[in-house]
Amino acid sequence: MTKPSIYGLTYEQLTDWLTDRGQQRFRVDQVWNWLYKKRVATFRDMRNVNKQTIELLEENFVLHTTEEEMKQESKDGTIKYLFKLADGNLIETVLMRFNYGLSVCVTTQVGCNIGCSFCASGLLRKSRDLSSGEIVEQIMNVQKDLDEKGAGERVSHIVVMGIGEPFDNFTNLMDFLYVVNDDRGLNIGARHITVSTSGLAHKIYEFADTGIQVNLAISIHAPNNELRTSIMKINKAFPIEKLMKAVDYYLEKTNRRITYEYIMLKDVNDHEEEAIQLAKLLEDHRHLAYVNLIPYNTVDEHSYYQRSDSETIQAFFETLKGKGIHCGVRWENGADIDAACGQLRSKQMKKKNVV
């Protein structure tokens, strides 16, 4: 059995693990610093850590359980990585360049069971959750790639919007968030991290109760149950009424703005009627709501869905604005590579005759 990744331990978990094995507490800070500040390639590179601690770490952990399988670079600076896990499974991670910094989109599961009818991620069913270490390693792999280029760039933002439903892997998700947010390590600010959910209402309550300052995004994609169920089967389990009740709890508990992701599907959910319904749905807490309109990236297997026309997207935007809803349009990064989430992985799996 493959040893677990050392990156899966939070600072507190590493502290307990080392002190339980007779190591002095200051060793924790040494190891943590070597992992996240100096980003060593092996435990042996931790030069001021004693031999006993090094051997203990080597016997029980590894630094790398993933390796780069493939990398696509876009003209706009977006990089899509395909990483191979220790069990041979493939996952996607994406680096995006914005004027405010470098943002990495991470994956939380191998495959996805949410089954949104327009999405490339769900073409391959979920086979397992990623460990917290496998999620952290995605950030570490990207950061080490940046380090090797020597430009002094660092990952400054994270979006948990890759393959899988983050809240369906809740414990590992939270450990990941605590690791990357820790100011003794990568120190990526909580307000620079966004977690996206398809609407697992019971987990929204749990997320609110953690008290973490990480941003929340909800993939809404339709303003009524009939339409939402037709494109997102998760709506059968968590219909809009149940979802919005969880939203009310989250807002009361945190007073933090929620982003609502809305993918623009031509002649499906992009009419003025849906824009009016969406504005109505959000009107009671519109001061803490932001709608992100997302032009659809077409997927071969879902060719019956097409991107809404630019004029239609603009009209939808104007209707929301006219109703007092804060909103914007998120044009895609990496349009000249496999831009849709899960698309690169799906293509590579087909080449390997997995699907």
SSE layout and pairing:
Blueprint: H1 11-20, H2 26-36, H3 51-60, E1 67-73, E2 79-84, E3 90-98, E4 101-105, E5 109-110, E6 128-129, H4 132-149, E7 155-160, H5 170-181, E8 193-197, H6 201-210, E9 215-219, H7 225-231, H8 234-237, H9 240-254, E10 258-264, H10 272-282, E11 289-295, H11 310-322, E12 326-329, H12 343-351
Parallel strand pairs: 4-7, 7-8, 8-9, 9-10, 10-11, 11-12
Antiparallel strand pairs: 1-2, 2-3, 3-4, 5-6
Helix pairs in contact: 4-5, 6-9, 10-11
Please tell me about this protein's structure.
This protein is an alpha/beta fold. It folds into two domains: 55 residues, DNA polymerase, domain 1 (Orthogonal Bundle); 285 residues, TIM Barrel, CATH 3.20.20. 37% of the residues lie in helices and 18% in strands. The protein contains twelve helices and twelve strands. The strands form two sheets. Strands 1-2-3-4-7-8-9-10-11-12 form a ten-stranded mixed sheet, with helices on both faces. Helix 4 packs parallel to helix 5. The longest helix is centred in the middle third of the chain and has 18 residues. The radius of gyration is 21 Å and the shape is elongated. 42% of the residues are buried. The mean pLDDT is 93.
CATH architecture field of the largest domain: Alpha-Beta Barrel
Number of domains: 2
Could you tell me the radius of gyration in angstroms?
Answer: 21 Å
Q: What's the average pLDDT?
A: 93
Q: Helical amount among residues, as a percent range? A: 25-40%
Poorly predicted sequence stretches spanning 5 or more consecutive residues: none
β-strand percent reads: 15-25%
Number of helices: 12
Query: Would you count the extended β strands for me?
Result: 12
- Please state how the strands of the largest beta sheet are arranged side by side: 1-2-3-4-7-8-9-10-11-12
Envelope shape? elongated
Briefly note the CATH topology name of the largest domain: TIM Barrel
From N to C, what is the helix and strand string?
Answer: HHHEEEEEEHEHEHEHHHEHEHEH
Distance between the termini: 26 Å
- Briefly, what CATH class of the largest domain? Alpha Beta
- CATH homologous superfamily (4th level) name of the largest domain: Aldolase class I
Largest sheet: 10 strands, mixed
